[in-house]
Amino acid sequence: MKNIILLLKSHQNLWTAMMLLLLMGSMASCSDDEFDTSAPPVIERIRNTNPNTADSSFVSATLGSTIAILGNNLSTTLEVYLNDYPLGVNPAYVTNNTVVIQINDSVPTVATNPDVINKLRLVTRAGEATYDFQTLPPAPQVLQVKNQYVGPGDQLTLYGRYFYFVDTVYFPGDDVFVTTGIQTNAGGNTLTVTVPEGLDFSESSNVIVVSRSGASATNRNTQIYSGWGMVADFDTPGVLNWPWDWGWGISGDMIRNTQPGIAALDGNFAGMNQAFPANNDWNNDKVINLAAWSGEQMFPTTPSNLYNPAAPAGNFDIRFELAINSAMPIQDLSVQIWYPDRNENELSYTIPLSEFARTADGTWYTFSANMTQLTNGNNRLGTYADFLAGDHDGIRQLRLVIQNTNPTQNIRATIGIDNIRIVRAVRQQ
């Protein structure tokens, strides 16, 4: 029992250690000599290590799970195999009636090999036992929404992991989901589905993917556009729609519904078609400088429950869609977000284009930056009120600049930018 208590104190996974104590406590003072080690092993059932599932019996588990094999004559267990892949056995996790193992990510699953045998095999000094058991991939993980600016009838593409056996994709709203027409690739890292009718963003803007292994988690990377927070869509009249050439912060002849190799998402967009100068050199046509020079509030303040001035700046993202069409490598191109605060700090954050844009063929991707990523030394925005305040003269500005960090090579490309907006990414205060 002393060794079990030491294990409980030192093991990083307290749930597993607690379970070991429960499963092994009555056997802790026994040695192999007290059991008939010549008897072949018997597997009665498999369960996980949560004490609340003591009476359960599993026939499948996901990669990464820790499971308890329950039975008899298990004290001399040498090895455990899942789909003929050896997992290894730690003697500290073995008693005559229990073997605790972890299913690591290298175990073959039906997702990657439909011919796996779906068997667990346990080997002891006296023989072996098998048990029908299916190993599944983990629950889906959504890492990126390719283009968040979608509505009913549009195709939504997700990038992530473990998109296997997906049966449902949930959208914002009460029971708004899709069960048919869900397309995934063989590697399980892309998913495409048609956006349904009935979206409701009053509670959430997240997309959730559900498979036989579970549901994907939600975070700021799993959201679609709610319709709130638009600053510049290059179509809608508003504070920035002045009747002069640079009212949208870019030359008027660059605002159109098409550019070479780029088709519009919805209406007009801001286009840049040039050889972007090397070494971060400047020209006006690589800049979108949104500015309310007369002091108007161009940033969103409604709905007030979302755009609460007291909310932490870290709850907000600056997002926009960007498309690039280029025959040249784009790894040296980036977009800088720039904002001057009321303390005369020029806050900025730079996003490499390759961080979000997976192709350079004119496809639209959503770019996103948390508002607190805009920094100048140790200076950053604290609350949304700091952002609403504008600069020291009360002028609200937000600038996007395409930068080419290559020291010598100009990069010829066409770039489109649309739907610059402020999104309440985290709704809790």
Automatic annotation (TrEMBL):
| InterPro entries assigned | Ig-like_fold (IPR013783), SGBP_B_XBD (IPR040475)
Q: What sequence ranges are listed for the domain Surface glycan-binding protein B xyloglucan binding?
A: 225-424
Q: Where is the signal peptide?
A: 1-31
Q: Where are the transmembrane segments?
A: none
- Write out the coiled-coil annotation as residue ranges: none
Q: Name one GO molecular function term.
A: polysaccharide binding
User: What domain of life does the UniProt record list for this protein's source?
Assistant: Bacteria
Q: Keywords in UniProt for this one?
A: Signal
- How is this protein named in the record? Surface glycan-binding protein B xyloglucan binding domain-containing protein
